[in-house]
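Exam revision sheet. Question 4 asks you to relate a sequence to its structure. Input first:
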Amino acid sequence: MRGTSKKISPPRRLIIDLMHASSDVPFVSLARTLNIRPLLEARSLLARPPGFAAIFVKAFAIVARDEPALRTVYAKWPRPCFYELPRNVAMVAIARVEEGEPCVLPQRVCEPDRHALTDIDRLIRNAKEAPIAEVPMFRKIMRATRLPWPFRRLAWRIGLNFGRQRGNWFGNFAVTGVAAYGGGELHALSPGPYVLSFDIAKPDGSIATVIRWDHRVTDAALIARTFDRLEQVLNTDIAAELRALRTAEPKAVRARGG
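Answer key, structure tokens:
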């Protein structure tokens, strides 16, 4: 049978490189359903609420701010060690269509625990809608992806195996989900050390979530506690910020008829 040979586009080449980089990470996953009714009630008050990606990015960053293990990566060079990042760096999976081909590109969010939800949401929305050339993170990624194979592998090795560079390029956690496409329990891969995915929020106030983590860095007990703390942050800190946004929203002007 004779098929058609097709050139691998740069966005697809990025995914191939990403999967290669993730292949030797000993991932373990834990799924849990969270009760986020207070968050959903606060979010429903807004005419244009922040997306769930922004909400989970900030919530996980708040949890990780107080838990150093959630900001720790495994580094191989110059010798195997754990490297604790001084601050959070999140990577958000952005689904796009480029030249008719679906692709996923990672957008970096630095210190999301220190930024307003609206700013995080604006950054994510811009990454979804702006041309690739106008998104700084995407420009850097595409430059690296267009390198010849040996140089590309070297760049990935440096980025993955030095603690500081790993934090700069891959962060300490990633957030993804397929809620916009009908939902589902997504067990995503990443160079790690933590990947959080979320499903569609249900009418009863629940939402299914999955955390995959590098087992070299920590164990399931911490992840179980992380879910508890994440649920608490979503229903307190994040819900309170959403209610404050409602207060700051301009009031609709009602026209008076004659």
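Marking note for examiners. The CA atoms of residues 40 and 209 lie 15 Å apart.
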